[in-house]
Amino acid sequence: MREPADADARRAVAPVIAYPDDTLPRPDLDLYRAARAGATLTASVRVEPREAACFTVPAGHFFRIVSVEGPQVGDLNLWNRADLSERFYSGKTRALHGTHLGTGARMWSSFPAMRPMATIVEDTLDWYGFDAYGGAVHDVIGTRCDPYTGNLLAGTQYHHCCHSNLTRALADETGLSLAEAEGCVHDVLNVFMCTGFTRDTGQYFMKASPVRPGDHLEFFAEIDLLGALSACPGGDCSAEHSSDTAQCHPLLVEVYAPAQGALAGWAPPPVNGYDRSHGR
Ligand SMILES: [Zn+2]
């Protein structure tokens, strides 16, 4: 189609932020950090390469995802431990916090609860920022690698994509059937993954993760959580995923309990205040 005469003027309109965050409830990071200072390790879960593992975190406790042995990205799912229908909402989190998460950002839950499930309290990759390609770490723009897309694009039957790893881990943890568990698996937080959109074609890209052993991403659990983390078959995602080609490493999840009384005055966030009448 031919451009209209005022095409340049239309393109020149300045954007506005869709969801200004000045009224977004702020986490009390100072309180969380003070509580973390006296916290003790209560559980440690190793996620094997090309597999996933579940972990539980009580409200008010912390969990840390640690790079061990070599660069590796992880695909994270979170559920309300008491109600798996309340789960991490990647799209809304992206709308509120942007394409990549860092310290102070929250992982928001699905409707109708729509409340913070977890708050990032420490990110050793905060220094990375946005690189010259527009890439950054810990995105909420990807989905999770899955066998359906592989089948669509290449006709493959690959069983260790993050989608299947998360499905098996959740089924093992809860006793749900594979089909039931699969229905609970959702779009992820891509932990340590370095991604963006190409400037010319807008395509989703990935590149070698800057993560190194010892790096970690740590969260404060706002509600009782069931988590599942997959060590992606893409390894550091420098080349490909959805195959057994990439070099992969394990990931470690550590859970920490604060000292008694360290969170005095704090309570888990209530569910969203919308009345759900939908105009009727
Ligand atoms: Zn993956």
Name some characteristics of this structure:
280 residues, alpha+beta, seven-stranded antiparallel β-sheet, 6 helices, 13 strands, globular, binds zinc ion
How many β-strand runs? 13
Order of helices and strands: HHEEEEEHEEEHHHEEEEE
How many domains would you count in the coordinates? 1
Please give the share of residues in helix: 10-25%
Low-confidence stretches: none
The whole-number mean of residue pLDDT values reads 95
Estimated radius of gyration: 20 Å
Derived from helix and strand composition plus strand pairing, the structural class reads: alpha+beta
Main β-sheet description: 7 strands, antiparallel
- Sheet-strand content, in percent, reads 25-35%
Bound molecules: zinc ion
Question: Mind explaining what this structure looks like?
Answer:
- Strands 2, 4, 5, 8, 9, 10 and 12 form a 7-stranded antiparallel β-sheet that branches. A 6-stranded antiparallel β-sheet has the order 1-13-3-11-7-6.
- It is about 20% helix and about 30% strand.
- The mean pLDDT is about 95.
- It has one domain (about 45-255).
- It has about 280 residues and is of the alpha+beta class.
- Helix 5 (about 160-175) crosses helix 6 (about 180-185).
